[in-house]
Design brief:
Largest sheet: 16 strands, mixed
Structural class: alpha/beta
Shape: elongated
Distance between the termini: 134 Å
Strand content: 15-25%
Number of strands: 18
Radius of gyration: 34 Å
């Protein structure tokens, strides 16, 4: 019990009044305004694997003496089962953070989150040099701090810690740049999320310079200030291991000409909600997933031999793209476009088709094709309520599911012609039978 209090004291989270709430179902404990007098409330968090601390001003603890723990304390800290710790709504003096971060080396905490925090001042990180921490995931959301430029030496002292990180996110934090030297410290990072910041086209090349983020697989640049498709390509082309890239919610423009080559490793590309009126080129050649939903596309006429999933919902398409351009495609989403007919015969081999909220021309062939796709479960959750007829007039407003597709209604010729043939054959047979039964009815013509 004293170990938990010591750990929380070391984190500098002690305030005037403490309230802790432990949700056993979620294995999550939340504490507000911790205090030294609230040991009983703190104790209930000990069985939790996720602990969240919210609220407080830590400036008063800047001078709090934090010495290296003795062997007994180290053993006790190692017995805590905390795996994830969240700090929220805190004013954090960086000098204090530099002191207490070392305590995490004695725990099993693998994920550390700072949510809506303000980092104040500048700490001395020299004592962190060579210090290994168990933390593999580090997240900052809606935080503010001093600019990163000029702080390369501070971060170099954290090289052992940063070099072991596998996942990093800095979101909604007004980030405008990331120095090259800092990026080179993240030698094992697999995933980087910098969504909802203020990164511009000119900031990418320095951030992803040669040697920076050498193992990066997943990169999100969603909702920044990116505008040039060519500049983004040039900015990330040195990320040789990159597999997933999101540029969603940036307003991208087509450059007059671009010879830039995307990383050959890129497999998933998110260009949703980027204001596209045409498909930007060149596209990464080995794409397996392409998301261009929520744009202003009228046509999609590109060929990608390795593409497996294509998302084009909420555009202005009047026709579906040719499936023949994507021989490996298994998923196609076309919801909320202006498509009246689908090449349903080409879609029979797809596993997942979504084409709800389109103005369908409910001809027998179109309605029958959609009903056939739905019968084998290919149309997903939108069927049948979001598949409506727009034409012909007598079917407008009806569900495609309710359009009759019997042979008599859809192809009367296919019924009438066989009936007529049968009637003709019956008549001929009757005439032949009558002639044979009355030979006198057949007379020879007189000879001249």
């Amino acid at each position: 019990m004293n170990v938990a209090v010591l750990f929380l004291l070391g984190l500098g989270l002690l305030e005037a009044e403490c309230r802790c709430f432990f949700n056993r179902t979620q294995d999550h404990c939340v504490c507000y305004n911790l205090s030294q007098e609230s040991v009983n409330s703190i104790i209930q968090c000990l069985p939790a694997s996720v602990v969240e601390f919210r609220g407080g001003d830590l400036e008063r603890y800047v001078a709090f003496p934090i010495s290296d723990p003795d062997p007994n304390t180290i053993e006790s800290l190692g017995s805590l089962i905390f795996r994830k710790i969240i700090f929220g709504d805190l004013l954090v003096p960086e000098i204090l953070l530099a002191q207490v971060l070392r305590l995490f080396s004695y725990t099993h905490v693998q994920e550390l989150v700072f949510d809506s925090c303000v980092f104040e001042g500048r700490g001395n990180w020299d004592r962190m040099a060579g210090q290994d921490l168990p933390i593999l995931s580090l997240h900052f959301h809606n935080v503010s701090s001093a600019v990163l430029t000029g702080r390369e030496q501070d971060f170099s002292s954290l090289s052992s810690f940063l070099g072991a990180l596998q996942e990093l996110s800095v979101t909604t934090s007004r980030l405008t740049s990331l120095p090259c030297a800092i990026g080179r410290l993240f030698t094992a990072l697999r995933s980087l999320d910098m969504a909802q910041n203020s990164l511009g086209d000119e900031s990418l090349t320095p951030a992803f310079c040669s040697g920076a983020f050498p193992q990066l697989r997943v990169l999100s640049l969603q909702h920044n200030n990116l505008t040039s498709y060519h500049s983004v390509c040039e900015g990330v082309q040195l990320l040789r291991e990159l597999q997933h890239l999101s540029l969603s919610q940036n307003k991208l423009r087509a450059d007059p000409s671009s010879s830039c080559q995307w990383p050959l490793s890129l497999r998933s590309f998110n260009l949703s909600d980027t204001g596209l009126e045409e498909v930007l080129t060149p596209l990464p050649p080995s794409l397996e997933v392409l998301d261009m939903s929520c744009n202003h596309l009228h046509t999609v006429d590109v060929s990608l031999g390795s593409l497996k999933k294509l998302f084009l919902s909420q555009n202005m398409l009047e026709a579906a793209p040719s499936i023949r351009n994507y021989p490996l495609l298994d998923t196609l989403h076309l919801d909320n476009n202006s498509i009246t007919e689908l090449p349903w015969d080409e879609m029979k081999n797809l596993r997942d088709v979504a084409a709800a909220d389109n103005p369908y021309m409910c001809s027998c062939s179109e309605a029958g094709g959609l009903q056939a796709l739905a019968a084998v479960g290919q149309l997903g959750q939108g069927w049948p309520q979001h598949y409506m007829c727009h034409a012909p007039p007598h079917y407008r407003g009806r569900l495609v599911e309710d359009v009759p597709i019997s042979v008599l209604q859809c192809n009367s010729a296919a019924v009438v012609v066989p009936i007529c043939i049968v009637l003709v054959l019956i008549a001929v047979a009757g005439a032949v039978s009558l002639v044979r039964s009355r030979p006198g009815l057949v007379r020879s013509c007189p000879r001249m």
